[in-house]
Amino acid sequence: MKNEFKVIADLIEKDKKVLDVGCADGTLMKFLKENKNANIRGLEISKEKVQECIAKGLTVIEGNAEKDLKQFPDKSFDYVVLSQTLQAFLNPELVLDELLRVGKKAIVTIPNFGYWKVRFHLLFKGTMPITKTLPDEWYNTPNLHMCTIKDFFNFVKIKDIKIFKSLALNNFNTSLINNSNLRIKNLFADLGIFLIEK
Amino acid sequence: MNNENNIKTLIIKKPLKLDCGKVIKDFPIAFETYGSLNSNKDNAILVFHALTGDQFVTGINPITKKDGWWSYAVGPDKAIDTNKYFVICSNVLGGCMGSYGPSHKDPDNQNIFGTNFPVITINDMVNAQYNLLEHFGIDKLFSIAGGSMGGMQVLQFISNFPEKSKTVIPIATTSSHSAQNIAFNELGRQAITADSEWKDGNYNKNNTSPGKGLAVARMAAHITYLSKKGLQEKFGRKLQEREDLKFGFDADFQIESYLRYQGSVFVDRFDANSYLYITRAMDYFDLAKQFKDNLSDAFINTKAKFFIISFTSDWLYPTQENKDIVIALNSIGADVGFVEIKSDKGHDSFLLDVPDFLNALKNFLDKSYIENKI
Fold it and tell me: What is the pTM of this model?
């Protein structure tokens, strides 16, 4: 399992109700169900991935986060998880608002466009960056709204969203992000993980 | 229990008050079972049939000598695995395969009911079938499943008996019959009643039947079960055993011949009055209305795990209508999964060999069964 998922799972206490938005093949859901006794639901757009979740015995709803989150009542989940998908929505702001309406807390992870390898790629190669977390070409990437860890920090500040915990991930190293080390983490983290609440 | 003509029936002694106000008692419900009930009696699945189905879910139907209507899904090692599960299915109230219906005799005057049979509803159907649980001594079913009108019964059953099933599988269905659904049913009923042999529903007296009307009803309905793409791919403009158009009104096209055949085989196995009654029950179905237009309230008392399935090319009970049920369940935090299966086979997809559908059904059931055991 990805290190990212282990870090996410560590943020969630036992016996919680969790919604995994864009749950893919259900790897994280299965882990949370088995290790955290989570009452877990998934929302997934791909028919193939939905089938994989069903085969794992997971409760998943085929649907689109931008349209289908609205059916869940306010604060009906303890945690809503969104892993590396915020940047792929047409309207990430709306999705973020919905995550925080449906969940008491949300865990959002973003591929960091401020990562030094991304910056170097663009600076020296002059072509759109391709890294382990951003593997696609500019013409076939699902990512529409790339942002950096710093962008996300500024964004949640404007939106009056409370950050409980920010974590920087680089391979297997996890570290806390705070205001004083933000510039450094924004350069050296491949992925940002945020536990937020509104 | 009588076993005449391969039809098992349970006589329901308890009076049943129907939605129309009438009370029926000492009436038969015909049923069939597959697999065996385990000693804990926790492996039973109640399957509900659609408009023209019957209790013979799988294997060879002893009456029609054809494959059971859900042979692709139910049987040893199939999606609903009869090596594991005990499958029960009964003919609906108002039907014509042994359950109490318009072709039975009115106990008051010994005449065949015809249209004097009380108008029944989906609610009446499931209330009658509930008696099967007592008959088998089953406290809680493992699952209830059905497509189309079978799905309507699934929804009504869990609403009426919220603690009586662990899992709930409505397939290609709706919580409320739409104007378009009612319109198609009315077309079928008009075809039947316009047949001069219908004789206000008393055709049994003369040993005739409104076969032409019933065949037209079936032909019209059959079109609604298929998709435009499916029809085009299967038939296109292909001609029926001829080189060229004949400039007449015989079946020039294969699709015409196919529909005529579907109509003709249907009249051999189905009763015209039953067709009127069952389509009426579907038209009257509006689960939300029973709960002051709040569909969620229909499911507020159940802790069952739902799995709802729709098909991309089903325009009779389209995905959105199935999704409306998912939305109603989500809004009360129910345990609900949903998948839309890609298929060109239209509404009939749930009856056919559609591997993605059958796999999803099997995986959901088998995983839920294991989870229940832990």
Answer: 0.95
